[in-house]
Structure formats: C-alpha cells, structure tokens
Amino acid sequence: MTAASRPTHRSRAAAPARGHRLATRRALAALATLAGLVSALPAAAAELKLRLLETTDLHMNLLAWDYYQDKPTDEYGLARTATLIKAARAEARNSLLFDNGDLLQGSPLGDYVARVKPLAAGAVHPAYKVLNALGVDAANIGNHEFNFGLPFLRQAIAGAAFPYVSANVTLDDGDGNPANDKPAFTPYVLLERSLTDETGAKRTLKVGVIGFVPPQIMTWDRAQLTGQLTVQDIQETARRYVPEMRAKGADLVVAIPHSGFERGETPRFAENSVARLSEIAGIDAILFGHSHGEFPSRFFANHAKVDLARGTINGVPAVMPGRWGDHLGVIDLVLDDSSGAWKIKDSRAEIRAIRDRATRKPLVEADPMVAQLVAAEHEATLRYVRGEVARSTAPITSFFAQVADDPSVQLVNNAQIAYAKRALAGTEHEGLPIVSAAAPFKSGGRMGWSYYTEIPAGTLSIRHIADLYIYPNTIKAVRLSGAQVREWLEMSAGAFRRIDAAGPAEQALIDERFVPYNFDMIDGLSYRIDVTQPARYDLAGKLVAPEARRIVDLRHQGQPVKDDAPFIVVTNNYRAAGGGSFPGLDGRQIVMDSADENREAVAQYLRSAGTLDPSADGNWRIQPVPGVKLRFSSSAAAIAQLPRTPQVRLVKDNGDGSALFELAN
Question: More exposed terminus of the chain, fewer Cβ within 10 Å: N or C?
C-alpha cells in the first residue's frame, strides 16, 4: 500500500462522521419530501363563517337630518346605520362591508358639494370621509353617480380608501362598436383576506367583487355621457367576467348590482336584472339596490324562486336594504372546504332597520362620528338652504298630487313655462303653444308616509325649492304633435288601476307599481282621465291596449287638440331623452337644450314672483265613476289640508301615519 493510499489518523476518524452526515442528509431529505407531501394536501377541513354587510342608495343622507324640513329625523341617515354596522361586526368574527352606489346625489348636502361650492382639487368628498372611517371593503357605482358628470365622479371617488367596481360601463373609443370598448372603471376586484375559521385558525380567503349599473344611464344622463361612455348588458357582462374571476382564484364571488328585482321577463339591457344574475353559475351572493326596496320582505313573496325565510333568490343569498340608510343588509355565510375548495354550506340573509315602523320609534342612536366628520359641510349646507327666495301665502303640499291637480306640481309647471318662453324668444319656435310636464316626486308609497312635500306658508327658501324638485335634472323642451302629446298623457294615465263600473262600491284607485315620478301632469292643456278604460301602455311603455283611450276631451285654450297641431313641451333631461319609456321620446325631439337645472327655473320664477299664492288651476281631473268610490292612501298629515281640498274626503285615519281617502264626485 502506498503512502498515498494508506489512511491517516484523520481520515480514519472522518469516515464515520461522513457516514453520519450522509444519514442525516438522507433523513432531512426524507423529512422535506414528507413535508412537501403534507403541504400539498388540503388543510384540515373546517367551517368558516363570513358576514357580508351592505348599504345602498344612501343619496347623501349621511346624517340623521331632514334638510327639506330643516330638522333632525329618526327615519333615515347613515349616522344611524353606522351604529348597526358596528353592532353587526361585533357579533361576527369575520365581516366585509360594501356600498352599492347612488351615494353622491340626492340631498342638498350632495348638491352643495357638487354644484354650489364644488369639491376642491385633492379634497376628500364628505361621503368618503364617512365611508373611509367605516372601513368599507369595496363599492359599486350607481346610476345617480353620473348625474353631476363624469369628471366630478372621478374626482369624488378618488378620495375613497377602498376599490370601486363597475363591470358594464365602458369607454367610447369612437369606432361605433361598443363590443370592443374598454372598461371605464375596474370591472372587479379580488380581495384577499385573512379570516378566522371555527377552530380559531387563520385562513386566507379570496373574495371576488363585481359591480353593475343600469344600462339606462346612457338615456338618463345622455348629455353628460354621450361620446364618453358606452354600456353593456348586465347579464352578458357577468357571464364574461365571473368565470375569469374564478380562474384567477376567487374562492367566493359577490355581485353588487345597482339593479332591482322585477318579476317577468328580463330583456337584454334590462334595468333590473337581479333575477337573471341569480341564475349565473359562479355567483355566490348578491347585494342589490336601485329600486329602494327591501329584500327579504313580504313585498317579494310572489316573486319566482324566492325563499323569504332564508333570504335567497334561486338559492343564492341576496339582500337589498332599502334606501337612505334606513336599513343595513346582512348576509351570513357558512363556508366549508372539506371538498378541497370553499363551498357555501349554509346562508341566511336579513335586513336590520334603524326604526320600528309600527311604533315609529328609533331602534338605534346615531353614531356621533359621522356628525364630527362632516360638520363643516353640514353647516355650510344649512346656511345655503336657509336662504330666502320668496314668500308663500299658503302651504304647499303634495299629499294629493297623485289623484288631483296639485299646487306643488303646478308651481313647477308654471316655472318651466316661464323659462321656456324666455329661452325660445326670437327662435323659430317662438309663437308655438308651450305646455309643461311635471310629476309629483314625493308621494309616499314605498318611501314612507312622511315622504311628501310639506312647505308651510311664509318664507320660501332654497331648501323648499329642493323639496319641490329633488333631482338635479336640467330643463329641456321637445317639439311634438298633438297626437304625440296625447300618447304622453296616456302613458302617464297608467298610474291608475282599471276601475270596474259594475264592480264593488269601493275600489283602489292608484296602481302602486307605477312610480310617481312618471305621473306627468301637462299644464297648458285641459283633459279628463277615464279610469274605467284599460291602461293603453304597460309600465315598460309597451302598447298593450291599442283600442283603449283614458285621456278624454283633450283641449288647448278651449279647443280640441288636433293630431297634427304642433306643441312645445317643457320637461327635464330624463324625460326628454326617453327616461320612463314614454312613447315618442328618445332625445331627437329636443329643441331647447339648456344646461340650467329645473330647480334654477323654479328659483327664477319664485324670485320674480316675490310673494306667491300657490294654487292649482284644475286643468285635469279623474272622471267620476257612478256608483263607485275611488279610494287611495296618503299621509295622515294630509287630513289638515282637507279644508283646502274639497275634491277629496277622509275615509279613516289608519293610525300608522297613513290615512284612507276617496275622491268626492
């Protein structure tokens, strides 16, 4: 054996050490392999409970304050909803909070920030001061967000400390093909959250959130959005994006459609698409709004595939928490991952009210945080709305505006006619008959028995103008024929039920499905409404009874209106562009395209009047039905107005804030 091959003392000692290290490495490798195998296995199956919370249609009612009556209220306000939010969070280990839009418009506070003293560059909108503090996880864009224009919307939501989603609004690239337009906003987000399961272990859940808005924004805000945006169908958009969200790892998909839940067929580009969304595979929960309804509630008892006890539509948990913060939507999900993926094992949906309707008492106090956050904007708004414009010698109310010619609507129509006469002077349309269409915006119903215009005699201020005309519509005028004006009125006359002249002695007059803001009264003409005839148009503006004529004895200046007679009808941008699906209106008939708000027309009219004696001229009425009492409900506060309204009499006070009335023949 050579010296080179003979083991030394050191090499003899190292041999067993090398063997030990080799064994150790092998053991470690085996452990690593085992660890890899273990890590590749699903985690121990466990249940995870997740609470979804929703606010919707807040319409800038951040505080428990009625700007129109200039006093506190316990009927609405995010300040009270905030208390419910905090309580609901305290009850659950895991929760997420969402807002479903129609946030930035709807109260004088919203008008002040957008129009009176516009939001300064870089400033945080008061709505986001509150929603940021509440810790909203994501939000959807509602249709009223577009009322103040796209630049204001983008400026405002820049102050949100949470993501916004809107999947079916796209940018108009000008090529005439909406199918290739790119998203105008983030279509969806994937929120990755560390949550605690029922064993106390931390688990990661990826929650996909997708939002939608009614395609009708392109009609309702045509002047603001044409050439800038296009819209896609809600269902088609959901079918495109939901599988994509799943492919990117969404364990749960929450849809936030600013869209209602309607019975019957849902055509392409439908405004209300919740029923169809519930049928799209991959959507686990629906937080909806827009129609200011309450789900689950008995109002939806006759809707198909609804389980009111569980709060599901087609098996999908869903919730719609009213409007203005009067409810909080709550969906409780029980998730299970025993299959290797999170699945909904159980669910329950409910709405929590801030006020007991039966006792008319508040159920929660307002969270003082909200008032502290928006104190400066609130005080500035109060100073603005308290400014005097004119004086009134009598009260102005809308208690009976759905059944009789009414001073509150008459005032708006007078103001619109006065504006149009000035605007059209010297144009080719000067000298044509000018008539005006306006509707009662505050008429109770689903909005509650206090939701009426009620302005006392005396000072008329900005807040009263906002009470008379609650929307930031702009004033428009359209040129129509006498025949088209008649069809406009026929559509409006769908507000009433058909009365059976040979039927019961007492019959309900108002069709509660017909929204009051579509009940246009046209001043400058005289007419009667025959409610024994079927409605000529359905709620969607479809001609359903071609032989029916509810509008009787239509006259202008005492003479029958001829079909080919030309008329200028003053209205608002919503109606002139086709809002409400009125026949013959699609925006092409506009001959006066003003940027001034209808409220500004009312303000100008009041300032010029100085002192106003509010009264209706009685240019229209519902034709009596011999032997039948035509009955309707309104606020019990309307009883005090009966001495000034001889065409209405009281049947009974219901004791719940409402009263039953009937028309006096």
Answer: N
Q: Torsions phi, psi of 491, nearest 5?
A: -65, -45
Strands 327-336 and 47-55: antiparallel
Indicate the pLDDT class of residue 193, thresholds 50, 70 and 90: very high
pLDDT number for residue 44: 59
Give how far Cα 580 sits from Cα of 258, 474, 494, 661, Å. 17, 16, 12, 28
Rounded distance, CA 160 to CA 537, Å?
Answer: 43
Amino acid occupying residue 503: G
Sign of the dihedral through C-alpha 559, 564, 567, 573:
positive
Residue corresponding to tokens 């509650």? 448
Whole-angstrom Cα distance, residue 219 to residue 226? 9
Q: Are strands 361-362 and 388-392 parallel, antiparallel or unpaired?
A: unpaired
Cα dist from 568 to 173, 436, 452, 639, whole Å? 35, 8, 29, 37
Would you call the peptide bond into 296 cis, given omega within 30 degrees of 0 as the criterion? Answer: yes
Q: Sort 165 into a burial class: Cβ within 10 Å, 0-12 / 13-18 / 19+.
A: buried
DSSP states along 401-453: TTTS--HHHHHHHHHHHHHHHHHHTTSTTTTS-EEEEE--S-B-GGG-TT-B-
Q: What are the structure tokens assigned to 192, written together?
A: 């990755």
SS (H, E, C) 573-631: HHHHCCCCCCCCCCCCCEEEEEEEEHHHHHHHHHHHHCEECCCCCCCEEECCCCCCEEE
Secondary structure of residue 540 in the 3-state scheme: coil
> What is the chain's mean pLDDT, rounded?
91
Quick one: tokens of 410?
């008459």
Q: Which residues contact 629 (CB under 8 A, 6 or more apart)?
A: 505, 506, 507, 662, 663
For the cut 70, the answer to whether the pLDDT of residue 4 exceeds it is no
Report if pTM > 0.85.
no
For 370, other C-beta atoms within 10 Å of its C-beta total: 26
For 316-433, strand residue ranges (E) read: 316-321, 327-336, 343-353, 355-356, 361-362, 388-392, 396-397
Work out the pLDDT band at 26, boundaries 50, 70, 90: low
Q: Residue 290 carries which DSSP code?
A: S
The CB-side HSE value for 355 (13 A sphere, CA atoms) comes to: 22
Q: What is the pLDDT of residues 101-119, one digit of tens each?
A: 999 998 999 999 999 999 9
The amino acid at 369: M
Is residue 236 classed as helix, strand or coil in its secondary structure? Answer: helix
Domains of the chain: 48-378 (3.60.21.10), 387-663 (3.90.780.10)
Question: How many CA within 13 A on the CB side of residue 125?
Answer: 27
Q: How far apart are CA 578 and CA 146, in angstroms?
A: 17
Separation of first and last alpha carbons in the chain: 134
Mention every residue, 6+ apart, whose C-beta is less than 8 A from residue 359. none
